[in-house]
Amino acid sequence: MARKIILDCDPGHDDAVAMILALGNPAIDLLGITTIGGNQTLAKVTRNAQSMLAVCGREDVPLHAGCVRPLVRALEVAPGIHGESGLDGVDLPEPTVAVAETHAVDFIIDTVMAHEPGTVTLVPTGPLTNIALAVRKEPRIAERVQEVVLMGGGYHTGNWSAVAEFNIIVDPEAAHIVMNEAWPLTMVGLDLTHQALVTADVEERIRAIGSECADVVLGLMAFFRQAYRENQGFDDPPVHDPCTVAYLIDPAVMTTRKVPLDVELRGELTVGMTVADFRVPPPADCTTQVAVDLDRERFWDLVIDAIAAVSRPRHSGATAENTTTEGATR
């Protein structure tokens, strides 16, 4: 039976790939997409989500905009990684999907409460503000969701500070709320996602699809590669966010380990750090786990199959070479 999910995201190059995977695999029933200010401002990432739905030809998926800023702190975005548009690297189509009037937080609550308990999974791949506000506004969703599978954090690795990952440090108070609820939670952090690298062989497999969607992904990844080389020292860029969706499609794509999790809020050097307690055994009431090892081939098979599944023929004259790595021109 297809997994019913809400994808809460801030597109974002890797969020765009997560959208494609969720839209292109029959094991996922995408109930809606909610957006959150993160990689870029809320207005920009929401437009990016609209454009990616147009790329995939999925005007049927509800789209709801969420919070413009973190619970306590000022908004911090990542133009050095994702560009000024949030999806620099390609010319994206004009949106064909309207943004719904209902706020993302209310959509999350209404959707979880309308479905049978244990049937809706929340998949946040940006800052956790929307999820935290939803569970504070309606605490009953904590016992009704099937699980929360989030991209964020790292049990040994940081990227926005020495010890903190971007999605967590941008709104650590929200992350603290989400990780301390009683719902089952899987943290897919940097220790796992840094194994999901877009290597040359992966790009060749995507190029062989020969579609507009494949061209968009190649253009996005070309920009992402350059950004990661300049800002993070990677030869090949990691695609963090689709790892969450891949896990829901095929749990064997990664191994996990049950450990208590928490978020540091007050450390002068460690604010936003996700603290995983690997002392064994975990307490009997532990509901959190972390992703540890990725089956790289299995993961890329899922992603590439999804790109092919949502692909439509290129318009006349459109090729992968038409994309630009100098930034979005829209």
Please characterize this protein's 3D structure.
This protein has one domain: Inosine-uridine Nucleoside N-ribohydrolase, Chain A (Alpha-Beta Complex), CATH 3.90.245.10. Helix content is 37%, strand content 15%. It contains 13 helices and 10 strands. Strands 3-2-1-4-5-6-10-7 form an 8-stranded mixed sheet, sandwiched between helices. A two-stranded antiparallel ribbon has the order 8-9. One of its GO terms (cellular component) is cytosol.
Structural topology:
Blueprint: E1 3-9, H1 13-24, E2 28-35, H2 42-55, E3 63-65, H3 79-82, H4 104-114, E4 120-124, H5 129-137, H6 141-144, E5 147-151, H7 166-170, H8 172-179, E6 185-188, H9 190-193, H10 200-207, H11 212-231, H12 242-249, E7 254-258, E8 261-263, E9 274-276, E10 288-294, H13 296-310
Helix pairs in contact: 1-12, 1-13, 4-5, 5-8
Biggest beta sheet attributes: 8 strands, mixed
Question: In terms of quaternary structure, what is this?
Answer: single chain
CATH architecture: Alpha-Beta Complex
Find the structural class using helix and strand composition.
alpha/beta
Overall tally of structural domains: 1
Question: Mean pLDDT, as a whole number?
Answer: 93
**Helical fraction:** 25-40%
GO molecular function: purine nucleosidase activity; uridine nucleosidase activity
Protein name: Ribonucleoside hydrolase
Keywords: Glycosidase, Hydrolase
Domain Inosine/uridine-preferring nucleoside hydrolase: 5-301
Output the keywords.
disordered C terminus, Inosine-uridine Nucleoside N-ribohydrolase, Chain A, glycosidase, 330 residues, Ribonucleoside hydrolase, alpha/beta, single chain
